């Protein structure tokens, strides 16, 4: 007597597979799927109240989106790490080490839900880009900075008092640090594109720190701050919409890169253009006549112009006016003395 070790889910799956094969073979035309089969196809296993999303629903509602890589951001935040190391040492008068954990892409809503509380959420604005970013300081770093700035002993860990809101003194001390970090962030972006980051407010509830839609993606930068036995993290979240004004610059592989340009060829072309011969025409005068008079003209016919001997004449290159000049004689030849430059007219279609 053999014992059947097949579990009920496996039996259900085998039965469903058999039904699908029968339908594919045409043996059960017109069969309607029940609710359990529909849920299984869409990826809901029904184990929880809302069901666990897998399969098709997981593909549709995936948390991450593949965004193009921005190589210049790595250079910007490497520069930020060096600047912060110096600035925080000056602020705390302590040995501070700043390290870059990683840079990743994440949806803003998912990031807000993942922030460990308690924490301070600093909303800042990029003035030149007219958009916002978010800086999160975790509780470990908050108590470490407060302890150091208030004269705590070195080599001792900061005492944490959980379950209470941050005091005004703690908030003001962290605000000082946030201003230092934002100034360093501005300096890190300066070689690429000058920008000023200004602190707008500090929140402790993520619901009040919404700076963009939950589905919008952004760049998440995690920094680790070590001060002896004290340590903590700073996370900077910048939406892609905020970085859009300098997107082309961030796509560069190195600072100052110019796509599709060859400076050697540009120099050679410029030098050759300066040696190009062009025809400069001096317009002594212009008049309008009808076609009949033009046909009746013969050698010796006179055309009257309204130009006086002392009037300035127009000099052109092709159809483009270039200079106004005075007509005279030099060494027995007609000469023109350029008096002024004619500014080119802007094309109205541009």
Overview of the molecule:
The chain is of the alpha+beta class. The protein contains 11 helices and 10 strands. It has helices spanning 8-24, 35-42, 55-60, 71-92, 108-114, 139-149, 168-189, 240-243, 247-250, 263-274, 291-296; strands at 97-107, 119-126, 131-138, 197-203, 217-227, 230-239, 280-283, 312-317, 320-330, 333-341. The chain has a 6-stranded antiparallel β-sheet. It has 3 domains: 8-60, no CATH class; 71-250, CheC-like (Chemotaxis protein chec, 3-Layer(aba) Sandwich); 277-341, SpoA-like (Surface presentation of antigens (SPOA), Roll). The radius of gyration is 37 Å and the shape is elongated. α4 crosses α7 and α6 packs across α7 (168-189). The N and C termini lie far apart (90 Å). The model is unreliable at 46-53 (pLDDT under 50).
């Amino acid at each position: 007597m053999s014992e059947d070790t097949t579990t009920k889910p496996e039996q259900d799956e085998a039965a469903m597979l058999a039904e699908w094969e029968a339908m594919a073979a045409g043996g059960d035309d017109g069969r309607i799927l029940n609710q359990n089969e529909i849920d299984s196809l869409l990826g809901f296993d029904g184990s929880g109240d809302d069901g666990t999303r897998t399969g098709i629903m997981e593909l549709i509602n995936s948390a991450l989106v593949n965004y193009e890589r921005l190589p210049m951001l790595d250079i910007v935040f490497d520069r930020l790490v060096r600047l912060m190391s110096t600035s925080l040492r000056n602020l705390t008068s302590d040995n501070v080490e700043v390290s870059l954990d990683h840079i990743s892409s994440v949806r803003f809503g998912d990031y807000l839900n993942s922030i460990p509380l308690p924490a301070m959420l600093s909303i800042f604005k990029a003035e030149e880009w007219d958009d916002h970013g978010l800086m999160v300081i975790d509780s470990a770093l908050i108590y470490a900075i407060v302890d150091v700035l208030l004269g705590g002993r070195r080599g001792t860990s900061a005492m944490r008092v959980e379950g209470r809101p941050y005091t005004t003194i703690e908030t003001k001390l962290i605000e000082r640090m946030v201003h230092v970090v934002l100034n360093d962030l501005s300096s890190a972006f300066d070689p690429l594109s000058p920008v000023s980051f200004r602190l707008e407010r500090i929140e402790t509830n993520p619901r009040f720190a919404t700076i963009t839609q939950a589905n919008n993606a952004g760049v998440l930068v995690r920094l680790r701050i070590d001060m002896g036995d004290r340590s903590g993290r700073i996370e900077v979240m910048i939406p892609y919409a905020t970085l859009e004004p300098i997107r082309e610059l961030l796509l560069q592989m190195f600072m100052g890169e110019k796509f599709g340009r060859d400076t050697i060829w540009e120099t050679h072309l410029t030098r050759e253009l300066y040696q190009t011969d062009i025809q400069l025409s001096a317009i002594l005068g212009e008049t309008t006549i009808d076609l009949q008079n033009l046909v009746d003209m013969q050698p010796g016919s006179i055309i009257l112009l309204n130009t006086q001997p002392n009037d300035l004449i127009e000099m052109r290159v092709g159809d483009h006016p270039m200079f106004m000049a005075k007509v005279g004689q030099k060494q027995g030849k007609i000469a023109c003395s350029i008096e002024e430059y004619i500014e080119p007219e802007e094309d109205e279609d541009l």
